């Protein structure tokens, strides 16, 4: 006999949380590089900055980075002051221009950083790794989370000598698809650097669910 909604609402239930984790190698790197220049004359600071950025763009293009894979993420002009003996003295202007570079093949990240620095970059503010298959990875993690929740529910039901109804009455997804994994967040300022070795590691994709089962 088919159960009514009222009867189902009266069934005893239990709530469990499940978690699934999937690890994978990244296939894309996003590198933020740029130029920071200072001069007492704004136009000169801008010109020097533009020269550095052009050098960065040129070397990136020569090494297979397409125009659409380079995007300005920050451009600012700030007034610089020096402070001494409680007095503020005008020192000039600071110009900052940052480019986000998408690199297909994260093993190239170190070489890209080196080339950018040798051709004008004096600012590296972040490297993140991601996967073009992130959605599929997340769905795999979600499947593992649901399995984890069911195993927990079955274990609890057995402990009370009860039987779990196979279809849950509620499933709440408690996570979203993964964000890129950060590698470097601190900026540095250098006109030259030894060969940069980037350890990309692996991406960890996590999913969580809250599942409500009834039992009898």
UniProtKB/TrEMBL annotation:
One of its GO terms (biological process) is DNA damage response. InterPro entries: 26kDa_periplasmic_antigen (IPR052022), SIMPL/DUF541 (IPR007497). Gene3D superfamilies: Protein of unknown function (DUF541), domain 1, Protein of unknown function (DUF541), domain 2. It comes from the Bacteria. This is DUF541 domain-containing protein.
